[in-house]
């Protein structure tokens, strides 16, 4: 079997180059006026003090990353009090279960459309527009992303309209502050092997990019293809190709196009060997054995760019 070091992993796992992330092209003679959303700071929702120093990156983020917050279980309480409760719940989960110094995400968006500051100092630093607070929401990419947790599980159901509207406004404001083009609005799964932000919400990311571009008054280029996500139980040609690549990497798996237990075990073993952490958006169960954006680069044959592989896989 091949061995995979972290430097190779980080290089291979990049979803896009940073070139073009800044310096958006406006569709008119001047950039659109972008409303400043109401963001409730940590002091309002009763946040615990951070358990360690907050790291401030001395550069702008490259990507805005959309998450779903599986826990606490969603309901139809759309109040501000519920938004504050969700913020406290997530912070407790991240600090007490994950062992992080604070909430992992910079901002949280509730089903009622209320936005709160997640990690301490995120709002202050965002307003400056030249630096960003380092979070803990996208493994191996936290120095280059700013993350938004959206209350709820969106694997099979759609987001409430209030959440969608506040998400558009928040993302547009962040993009405006940092000069991030809409094509660099990503989902968590574009970096790690996770379903996050849920299939339904993930499918709406092109719509989100268009909506944000409209607010910013900028043209939106077509986002490049991303690595597909394969989960245990999946079938088809993509699974068969992955199995062939796993065999070439040294794993004894079938090539029947069925993502069964042996394929899941091989992916889990490869992920562990490469130091890939399990998804942390899903506290109810670990998404072990998922084959996504940080696993594909470890198994595809060399000699072609990641972009070329992503493009070909997207056409299958």
UniProtKB/TrEMBL annotation:
A Gene Ontology molecular function term of the record: N-acetylmuramoyl-L-alanine amidase activity
Domain named N-acetylmuramoyl-L-alanine amidase: residues: 58-199
The organism's place on the tree of life at top rank: Bacteria
Stretches assigned to the Peptidoglycan binding-like domain: 236-276
GO biological process: peptidoglycan catabolic process
InterPro entries associated with the record: Amidase/PGRP_sf (IPR036505), Amidase_domain (IPR002502), Peptidoglycan-bd-like (IPR002477), PGBD-like_sf (IPR036365), PGBDSf (IPR036366), PGRP (IPR015510), TAT_signal (IPR006311)
Annotated Gene3D superfamilies: Peptidoglycan recognition protein-like, PGBD-like superfamily/PGBD
Keyword Signal carried by entry: yes
UniProt-listed PANTHER family: PEPTIDOGLYCAN RECOGNITION PROTEIN (PTHR11022), PEPTIDOGLYCAN-RECOGNITION PROTEIN LC-RELATED (PTHR11022:SF41)
The protein's name: N-acetylmuramoyl-L-alanine amidase
Organism expressing this protein natively: Amycolatopsis eburnea
Lineage per the UniProt record: Bacteria, Bacillati, Actinomycetota, Actinomycetes, Pseudonocardiales
